[in-house]
Amino acid sequence: MLEQENSQRSVIVLGAGIVGTCVAITLLQEGYRVTIVDREGPATGASSGNAGAISPGSCIPLATPGMLKQVPRWLLEQDGPLVIRPSYALQAMPWLLRFLASSRPDRFERICDALYALHSPTHQCYEPILKFANASALIRRTGSLTVYETASAFQSSLSSWEARARRGARHEVLSADQIEELVPALGRRFPGAVLQPDHAYVADPHKLVTSFFDAACGAGAKFLRDEALSISDRSDGASVRLASGRVTSAGQVIVATGAASRHLIRSLGLDVPLERQRGYHLHLPTPGVELPLPVSFASSKFYATPMANGIRLAGTVEFARPSAKPNFSRSDRLGGMASRWIDGLQLEGATRWMGNRPCLPDSLPVIDRAAPGSNIILAFGHGHNGMTSAPVTARLVADIIARRKPFINLAPYRANRF
Predict the structure, then answer these.
(1) How far apart are CA 265 and CA 286, in angstroms?
(2) Per-residue pLDDT averaged across 318-346, rounded?
(3) Least confident of 54-58, 83-87, 287-291, 376-380
(4) Is the per-residue pLDDT at 2 higher than 50?
(5) Average pLDDT over residues 82-94
(6) Are strands 237-242 and 247-250 parallel, antiparallel or unpaired?
(7) Opening angle at CA 409, ends 407 and 411, nearest 5
(8) pLDDT of res. 45
């Protein structure tokens, strides 16, 4: 059955995560008729299980100069912050080679510029969406703290903080005494830390996304609980074939399906090196301590966020076959590390989670038309930064659809850059 609406003022948004719901609200605010399509409903993937960070100063990609020497350890260590399951190593190798190539100093600097351009306007771009959904209370603008377990680790990090500062991101270096004063539960065990005062966090990521979704539907957006199997471009619009057998069409289609996007756009003859990076978290409903702001443990590579219903520990990365069972010992590992560094932390009643982050090797998303003149817009691959970059992506998607000059240069986010 074909459901057709070819007006350029009609759009189909594929995906009801943080990116898709931000896009839906932004387009509704501009007067478009919006249909949201998602197989499960809002906030069922990484949009609900993430660490909740909103980081306007985040501009350092995952691949950094000198990272090549760490690859052998990744392949052998099965309990580290980044793990490649042996059965998936060969399949992951092409992505990893691209990842390492993006760490070359010249490319690293360009990627830093592109990340800062995408992340720095996040608060400004969130404001109209939060107001529309009456959800401003879910964003806590507390700043965030990065702590270093050793003096040598702190010293080796200074170049990355200088790279942030060159692009305009603010930070303050704190002593052990200042760390204890700001976060008593950390004590004086850390020789140094960096405070990023402009950072924020989401007190409840699931509630934020569902609030956006509910607000969009309340303002007239339609919702189809269905799975998009393929997309077709036409001169007067685009159509989507759904698992239910329906074919629905609109003037424009936006692909914001996160980790599933690579498979979906293959129906367009496109392929991008999008990898599913498994992330784990351990959520502590009664942690027994209070954190006044999110804390990133730089050497251990995990994040502790004080959410509305406890503390969430997140940060581990795993490459594995999509069909592989979760290894929840990785969640438990987060609890063990946090207990070592946070005085009085209680792990009783903890819940575990695993989800897929949609990651590209250069840490940048795809924000682009599927082809010149296409009525299909791609908006996926936000990796570890979805909560930060979602509202900015929505603003850029609206510019693309309206054929306005985007407010930042879109060249770094082109689909054909690989």
Answers:
(1) 43
(2) 93
(3) 83-87
(4) no
(5) 86
(6) antiparallel
(7) 145
(8) 82
Distance set, CA 370 to CA 266, 336, 366, 416 (Å)? 11, 45, 10, 9
Place of tokens 């471009």: 233
User: Which tokens sit at 288?
Assistant: 């027994």
Residues 366 and 202: their CA atoms lie apart, in Å, by: 24
The residues facing 207 across adjacent strands are none
Contact 137, 407 (CB under 8 A): no
Cβ-based burial of 83 (10 A; exposed 0-12, middle 13-18, buried ≥19):
buried
Q: What is the chain's mean pLDDT, rounded?
A: 93
pLDDT over 70, % of the chain: 96
Tokens of 169: 């991101």
Output the CA torsion 16→17→23→27 (10° steps). Answer: 30
Kind plus residue range of the DSSP H or E element containing 148: strand 144-148
Q: How many other C-beta atoms are found inside a 10 Å radius of the C-beta of residue 109?
A: 14
Distance CA 152, CA 149 (A): 9
Half-sphere exposure of 376 (CA within 13 A, CB side): 26
For the chain, state the CA radius of gyration: 21
Residues 304 and 73: their CA atoms lie apart, in Å, by 25
pLDDT of residue 75: 58
